[in-house]
């Protein structure tokens, strides 16, 4: 059953109203019961019984403080004006002393002090004076309770206020939890879309307005899913077509390469003239280049078709393997590898192993991606060194694998489009031997994105802005497996 949000809110307003009535009614009822039972004296008790109490005190042969009701406080003075006994606080004693001796022998009188207390003095049989003090407020009938607690009126007011605050707090807490629970499907749906989970249906809600939003999100999810599936199907067909075309090219390329090899052997034996030998070499080099190009296309298509196989990976072990593989590749080019790991990276590796929570990666795919970056760096390095570095960003919880060279760097076009397939618009980084097909960076970017990361291309520069070389960095978020 769908309920309007206004009704949900109104229900909690009703809870507050009922709670407020109870918070006021229960203390008021308890107060009335105590007055009816005699546990609390009415507010006018001191004023109404004053004459009776004074008459009783004046007729006592010896002073008895227990005969004074709890509505009064007393101070007994001797004939010489000395204080003999009292249950008044210090502030009231000063006023009582002024009332104890009547001016010019006048009869006892009632005096109202600035503190809203009333004072009256009565003469005792021993020649002393007793000053009674009272207030027009309800009071406890028991003197022990009177001395231990505030007067019933103040206690009633503070009790009502505390109960009201408690009612509002409890209703607000309950309302917050209920509304949060009712908004839960909306939060879950938004989180699912955020992590690109389009297979989980969006739940419903019994709150009409929230349910309307959820229905719209469900329609959006289905639309996005259909669009994504259509795009994936188109990409899959495109990859299959490219892979099939590349496979079909393998046969004529093999024939052309075989014949070029035979011609090269004839040229080596001197059976061909100089011009013919040059043509044979050109044909062989072109066939080798085309064969390498077709191989890279097949590799890229196969990599996308197979996807990634995620498993817990020790980042330190991955770094060890990459350093070995990249080192061998760079050595084959006659270069030297400079490898480094930041302390934050090593700490993150140690923590992951200690906690048993390793990131979910495809180590083989990452190895291919980094080797592509390293091969690209080898082809464009001007000096004799290529750098491989590992770092960790604790704030982003991401690991970075960077490959740097000291070549001409990326052009603005390459920085913007270098990860696109078959992009070859960077003349500065296109080598003359025809091995640059625009696939290496695209393959690395695909692998990074399959891990929820990205490939970042940039140029290293000095303080004056001069380009010192290119930098390609794979950034991988630490999607962690459950602790083992």
From TrEMBL:
Q: Which residues form the HAMP domain?
A: 177-229
What membrane topology is given?
Multi-pass membrane protein
Listed GO CC annotations:
plasma membrane
Q: Which SUPFAM superfamilies match?
A: ATPase domain of HSP90 chaperone/DNA topoisomerase II/histidine kinase, Homodimeric domain of signal transducing histidine kinase
Segments forming domain Histidine kinase: 244-480
Q: Please state the Enzyme Commission number of this protein.
A: 2.7.13.3
Residue ranges spanning the membrane: these are 12-33, 155-173
- Ribosomal protein listed as a keyword: no
Q: Which cofactor does it need?
A: Mg(2+); Mn(2+)
Record field: catalytic activity? ATP + protein L-histidine = ADP + protein N-phospho-L-histidine
- Database matches in SMART domains: HAMP, HATPase_c, HisKA
Where found? Cell membrane
**Protein keywords:** ATP-binding, Cell membrane, Hydrolase, Kinase, Magnesium, Manganese, Membrane, Nucleotide-binding, Phosphoprotein, Protein phosphatase, Stress response, Transferase, Transmembrane, Transmembrane helix, Two-component regulatory system, Virulence
Q: What class of enzyme is it?
A: transferase
Give GO terms: molecular function aspect only: ATP binding; phosphoprotein phosphatase activity; phosphorelay sensor kinase activity
Report the PANTHER family cross-referenced here: SENSOR PROTEIN CREC
This protein's name: Signal transduction histidine-protein kinase/phosphatase MprB
Species assigned in the record: Olsenella profusa F0195
């Amino acid at each position: 059953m769908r309920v309007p949000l206004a009704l949900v809110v109104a229900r909690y307003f009703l809870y507050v109203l009922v709670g407020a009535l109870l918070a006021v009614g229960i203390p008021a009822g308890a107060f009335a019961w105590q007055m009816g039972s005699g546990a609390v004296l009415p507010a006018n008790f001191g004023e109404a019984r004053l004459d009776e109490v004074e008459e009783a005190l004046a007729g006592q042969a010896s002073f008895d403080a227990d005969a004074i009701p709890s509505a009064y406080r007393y101070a007994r003075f001797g004939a010489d004006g000395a204080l003999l006994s009292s249950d008044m606080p210090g502030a009231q004693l000063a006023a009582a002393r002024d009332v104890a001796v009547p001016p010019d022998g006048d009869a006892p009188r009632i005096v109202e002090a600035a503190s809203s207390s009333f004072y009256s003095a009565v003469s005792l049989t021993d020649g002393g004076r007793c000053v009674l003090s009272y207030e027009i407020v309800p009071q406890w009938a028991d003197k022990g309770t009177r001395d231990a607690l505030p007067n019933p009126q103040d206690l009633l007011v503070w009790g009502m206020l505390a109960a009201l605050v408690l009612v509002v707090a409890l209703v607000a807490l309950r309302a917050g939890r209920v509304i949060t629970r009712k908004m839960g499907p909306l939060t879950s749906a938004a989180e699912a879309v955020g992590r690109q989970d389009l297979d989980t249906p969006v739940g419903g809600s019994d709150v009409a307005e929230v349910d309307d939003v959820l229905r719209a999100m469900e329609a959006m999810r289905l639309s996005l899913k259909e669009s994504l599936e259509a795009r994936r199907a188109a990409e899959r067909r495109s990859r299959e077509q490219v892979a099939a075309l590349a496979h079909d090219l393998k046969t004529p390329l093999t024939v052309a390469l075989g014949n070029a090899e035979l011609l090269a052997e004839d040229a080596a034996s001197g059976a061909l003239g100089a011009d013919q030998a040059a043509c044979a070499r050109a044909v062989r080099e072109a066939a080798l280049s085309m064969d390498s190009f077709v191989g890279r296309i097949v590799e890229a298509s196969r990599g996308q078709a197979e996807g990634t196989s995620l498993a817990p990976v020790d980042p330190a072990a991955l770094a060890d393997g990459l350093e070995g593989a990249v080192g061998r590749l760079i050595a084959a080019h006659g270069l030297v590898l400079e490898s480094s790991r930041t302390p934050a990276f090593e700490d993150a590796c140690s923590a992951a192993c200690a906690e048993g929570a390793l990131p979910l990666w495809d180590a083989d795919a990452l190895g291919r991606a980094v080797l592509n970056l390293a091969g690209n760096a080898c082809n464009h390095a001007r000096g004799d060194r290529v750098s491989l570095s590992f770092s960790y960003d604790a704030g982003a919880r991401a690991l970075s694998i960077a490959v740097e060279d000291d070549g001409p760097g990326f052009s603005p076009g390459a920085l913007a489009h270098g990860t696109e397939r078959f992009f070859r618009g960077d003349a500065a980084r296109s080598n003359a031997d025809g091995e640059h097909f625009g696939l290496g960076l695209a393959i690395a970017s695909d692998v990074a994105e399959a891990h929820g990361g990205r490939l970042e291309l940039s140029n290293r520069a000095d303080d004056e802005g001069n380009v010192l070389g290119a930098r390609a960095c794979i950034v991988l978020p630490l999607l962690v497996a459950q602790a083992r």
